[in-house]
Write a structure and sequence with these properties.
Layout (H helix, E strand, L loop, with lengths): L1 H5 L2 H21 L4 H22 L5 H16 L3 E8 L4 E9 L4 E3 L7 E2 L4 H9 L3 E3 L10 H9 L5 E6 L5 E6 L9 H25 L12 E5 L5 E4 L2 E4 L6 H13 L3 E2 H8 L5 H19 L7 E4 L2 E4 L4 E4 H14 L3 H14 L12 H28 L2 H12 L6 H15 L1 H12 L4 H19 L1
Parallel strand pairs: 8-14
Antiparallel strand pairs: 1-2, 1-7, 2-3, 2-4, 5-6, 6-7, 8-9, 9-10, 11-13, 12-13
Helix pairs in contact: 2-7, 3-4, 4-7, 9-10, 11-12, 12-13, 13-14, 14-15, 15-16, 15-17
Length: 466
């Protein structure tokens, strides 16, 4: 069973004794008495045994996490317990699962969506030192740590215990407003191991559902394909995540924006382009929150997918980033230079195969992307026209018709596509069907364009069929 796989009973008690030995001296200096320590040791064993009994046969990661949070609240007679996951690179954290003892509710977001590390200097130090944060009375730190106290006051925190856990995941198991054992973090540290190890397993399980395909081969793990021609997606080996699986529009906006810029961009530049009508401070919070959530979703596909370094955001520099926009333009340029028909045709087919749809159509009207959208739409029209004309030299009407149908599912208004639609239909299905095909073009073209289309298609058919 999962609980036994996580740790056996003997290991559990061994860890608790080790944790207790490491932290007992600071606890005693904080004012605990022998009677309280004896009561604490007794309750420690009882509550931990009760937790094990409750979930020992459970395979549900959600149940195990929630029971560990409930146990924390009951043991410390606390109002609230939760797991905060931190993003060191983004210098922010957010609650991922919480439990409110008084309401009995699972609270998915207790503070802001993300909190900056600003004002939490002692907490950051605790990460590195792997020591718990113990605040038996927040009013006692007001003078010494005013910024930290201000956060506590905003969140209505009177007392608090925070047990760090990291590196995968990195965060804190937090007990808010404990009314007993306020200076004794051993149980919090034990439950941090249970809760956050379970959280990590849950993230791993959910990632298997999130990503299409199987695991990446070792030779492919450092190649990250970012495809933004069409609905955006990110691929590593045979694994892929796209907007169907991960629907955060803000995340995909950041990914597409960076892919188009092809270089690191400062946070302020990003938010001024993506959210020009949003207050800069709020927009920067949006960006941090977006990158925080994105890293969690991408961690098993490409760890630290988007990173912040020296004030700029870019993709993980340890990976080789391959953009479909660059590949598309490369094949099109190659086709333009190529004189050999077979090689030219091959380059054009490769370019067209990369164009799954117009550039990030979901946001094509936004000012930051409109010029790029027009640029690649124009290149596609040029590319599909060249491909159909090249196939026309072979009079391969079946293949021409296949590419025409695919093109019309992506774009309308390209005259040469309608031309080859009429011509291929005439040669495959006859004149009556070609007339119907011509009627389809009429709705998408101006009167002058339509008349010219009928003239040149009729001339071609007469020449090659007559």
């Amino acid at each position: 069973m999962f609980w036994k796989k996580l740790f056996g009973k003997s290991k559990m008690y061994e860890m608790s004794r080790q944790e207790s030995a490491q932290s007992r001296q600071p606890i005693e200096s904080a004012g605990s008495c022998p009677d309280e320590e004896r009561e604490y040791d007794r309750d420690f064993r009882q509550y931990l045994s009760k937790l094990e009994y409750t979930v020992h046969s459970s395979e549900s990661t959600s149940e195990i996490m929630m029971e560990s949070l409930k146990t924390a609240c009951e043991f410390y007679d606390a109002e609230f317990s939760g797991i905060l996951i931190a993003d060191i690179g983004e210098e922010s954290w957010a609650p991922v699962v919480c439990y409110n003892r008084w309401t009995g509710n699972h609270v998915s977001r207790y503070t802001k969506e993300t909190e900056s590390f600003e004002g939490f200097g002692r907490w950051v130090e605790a990460f590195g030192a792997s020591t718990p944060i113990v605040v038996p009375d927040t009013s006692m730190i007001k003078a010494m740590f005013p910024d930290e106290y201000e956060h506590y006051e905003r969140l209505k925190v009177d007392s608090l215990i925070g047990a760090p856990f990291g590196e995968k995941p990195t965060g804190f198991f937090v007990i808010k407003n404990p009314r007993r054992y306020k200076t004794m973090p051993d149980m919090a540290r034990m439950l941090a191991f249970v809760g956050m190890s379970t959280y990590y397993l849950q993230e791993l399980q959910q990632s298997e559902e999130l990503y299409d395909g199987q695991g990446a081969d070792d030779k492919d793990k450092d190649l990250v394909y970012i495809n933004i021609l069409g609905s955006p997606e990110v691929c590593v080996g045979s694994k892929r995540i796209d907007m169907r699986k991960y629907s955060s529009m803000k995340s995909w906006m950041v990914i597409v924006y960076l892919a188009l810029k092809k270089k690191a961009v400062s946070g302020r530049t990003i938010v001024s382009d993506l959210w020009p009508n949003v207050d800069t401070v709020k927009a920067m919070d949006n960006l941090r929150s977006t990158c925080y959530q994105m890293r969690g979703k991408f961690q098993f596909l490409c760890p630290e997918f988007v990173v912040s370094e020296n004030g700029g955001y870019w993709f993980n520099r340890d990976k080789v980033i391959v953009l479909d926009t660059e590949m598309f333009e490369m094949y099109l340029k190659k086709a333009k230079k190529e004189k050999n028909h077979t090689l030219k045709l091959d380059a054009l087919k490769r370019a067209v195969s990369l164009y799954r749809g117009h550039l990030f159509d979901e946001q094509c009207d936004d000012s930051w992307i409109s010029n790029y959208h027009y640029h690649y739409s124009k290149l596609y029209a040029e590319c599909i026209t060249a491909l159909l004309d090249e196939l026309g030299l072979e009079e391969n009407h079946s293949e021409i018709h296949k590419y025409v149908v695919e093109s019309l599912s992506i774009s309308h208004g390209i005259i040469k596509v309608y031309f080859w639609l009429i011509v291929s239909t005439e040669f495959i299905s006859g004149h009556a069907e070609a007339v119907k095909a011509a009627a389809l073009a009429k709705a998408d073209l101006t009167e002058g364009e339509y008349k010219e289309l009928i003239r040149i298609s009729g001339k071609y058919i007469t020449k090659h069929k007559g």
